[in-house]
């Protein structure tokens, strides 16, 4: 996509490509975020072009140019905000779905014949040794041990519920690295949209050429002038 010098580079859709976790495998999962930024970037550029075009109209003075540009900008801004809101909603929904998958309690292997012995062995360890034992089991991808510990009530292994949730999440990520990677890039995309979305309003105002309160004053003066003509026409008709 083109680069427009009048618009902040923070809204360029290529920012999505620089997110941690972004590559050919994950690109499709954050494409909606890139589309939202593209809508914003191109839309704001259209406002800049409309402002320049308004200056070439010999009938419009500066006030008329600003009002016409602002009318155009408001329509563009509506499309932009809808696109960003839609992208955020879709990302949030997908993130919540993956989070649920990665935090699903384990059940397989908890009733394995040696599961009770594994839990009893770990329960007799102190906290430091227990953590080290579990971390080593994760590194070795020792599913028999991990499922025995995490698929049963926490107290049977001397763990807390929070520890079980933590290690369960880590095990799911070990077993589903692609899913964990997808979640990371989607979260990063959602964060970026949240951080950059607010820039849209400043950039639209800059593209119009004057702050909104100035435009409102111009609109008020225009409406009052037009109303005066309407009243005078009514008197003439009488």
From TrEMBL:
> Which superkingdom heads the taxonomic lineage of this protein's source?
Bacteria
What is the name attached to this protein's record? Uncharacterized protein
Q: What is the organism field in this record?
A: Acinetobacter qingfengensis
């Amino acid at each position: 996509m083109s680069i427009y010098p009048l618009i902040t580079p923070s809204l360029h859709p290529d920012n999505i490509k620089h997110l941690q976790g972004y590559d050919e495998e994950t690109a499709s999962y954050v494409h909606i975020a890139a589309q939202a930024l593209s809508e914003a970037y191109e839309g704001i550029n259209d406002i800049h072009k409309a402002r320049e075009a308004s200056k070439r109209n010999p009938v419009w003075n500066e006030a008329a140019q600003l009002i016409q540009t602002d009318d155009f900008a408001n329509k563009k801004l509506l499309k932009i905000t809808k696109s960003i809101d839609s992208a955020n909603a879709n990302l949030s929904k997908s993130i919540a779905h993956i989070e649920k998958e990665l935090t699903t309690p384990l059940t397989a292997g908890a009733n394995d014949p040696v599961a009770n012995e594994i839990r009893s062995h770990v329960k007799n360890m102190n906290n430091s040794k227990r953590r080290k034992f579990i971390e080593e089991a994760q590194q070795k991808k020792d599913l028999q041990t991990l499922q025995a510990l995490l698929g049963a009530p926490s107290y049977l292994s001397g763990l807390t519920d929070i520890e079980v949730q933590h290690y369960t999440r880590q095990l799911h990520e070990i077993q589903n690295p692609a899913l964990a990677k997808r979640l990371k890039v989607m979260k990063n995309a959602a964060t970026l949209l949240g951080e950059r979305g607010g820039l849209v309003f400043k950039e639209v105002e800059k593209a119009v050429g004057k702050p909104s309160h100035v435009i409102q004053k111009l609109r008020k003066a225009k409406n009052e002038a037009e109303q005066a003509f309407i009243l005078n026409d009514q008197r003439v008709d009488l």
